[in-house]
Amino acid sequence: MISSGSPNSSRRISRRPACTPCRVRKLACDRSEPVCKRCRKARTKLNCIYPSSTTPLGTSNSEPELVSGANAATEAWPRTVAKPLIDAASDSGYFGYTSHNNVFEETQLDLLLANGSTSQQDSSERTERNNQRVAFRELQSPIRESALFALRCLPVEQMALQKSSSDLKGWVNVATDRIIQSTHVTFKGLLQQGDGGLSALAEILCNNTRRPIKEESHDAEQWISQFCDKNLRWESIGLFWAGIARISDDVDSLRSHHVESLTQQVSPETARTCLGYCIELARTFTEGNEVLLDLCRRKSILDSIIDGDARKF
Length: 313
Hints:
Layout: H1 20-24, H2 37-40, H3 85-91, H4 100-117, H5 123-131, H6 141-152, H7 156-160, H8 171-186, H9 188-191, H10 194-209, H11 220-224, H12 234-244, H13 260-263, H14 268-285, H15 290-307
Helix pairs in contact: 6-10, 6-14, 8-12, 12-14, 12-15, 14-15
C-alpha cells in the first residue's frame, strides 16, 4: 500500500539557516533577503551573508514510500534523511566537534564581521601616519617611564667589553650581536648623557618602530638590517633582553651563548620586566611583525620559567 500525506511521513521541512552575523552573535534572525531586519537596523555595517546549504528548501524526499506487512509497524517512527558524506565532512571534520574545521569556520566568520564593521584604511593615509614624527616629551607618562626604565637597566659598561664574534649560528645570535654593537657604537654618546640622552634615544626608537618591517625579504642580512644599526627599534631592545635571559630556541639553548657575561649582571625578573615593556612599546607604535611575534613567544617562555614549574628543572 502507498502511504499518503500522513503527519508521520519521512518528509522533512528544512528552514534556511540564519545569516552569519546573527548566527555568530547567537541572535534571532528573520531570514529575510537580501538583508535581514536585524542587520539592517544595526548601528555598524554588517555583511548579511547566508551560508550556502546543500539541503533544498521544502521537502527533502518527494518519492512515495512503499509500506507493506513487516514495515507497516515501523511507519509511525519518524525517519530522517541522511546527509551526504560531503556535508558531514565539511561540518564537523574527521575528529568531530574538536576538528580544526570548526576553528577555521569561526575565524572566517569573525573576519567577515570585522571587515563589515570597520573601514579599511587607505594606504596613503597609513604611509602619512608612519611618516609623522613622534615627540617623546608629548607621550603619556606611563609610556615615557617604561621606555626610560628599559634603557636605564641596560648593562652599558659590560656591553662595551663585548667583542663581536664571527662564529655565530642562528639569526637571533647574529641580530643580538649587531644590536649590542649598534647600541655601543652608534648611540654611545646618548647613553652617557643621563636621562636627557636616554629620552633622545627613546624618541629615535619610537620613530624607527613606526616604520614597517618588510617580511618578504629573502636576504637575511637585509632583513636583520631593518632593526639594527641606525634602524634600532623597540623590538631590537626586546631581543637583547631576551638574549640576556637566555630565552632562545631548543637548539640554540644548547650552544655557548656569546652574552653569558651579561647574563650574570641582570636578574631574570629585571629581564622579564624590560622585555615586557619593549613588547608593549612596540605594540604602541607598530601594527605587528614577525620579530614582535617572536618576542611574545619568548616572553611566555620566560614567564613559565620564573613563575611556573619549569624553574625547578
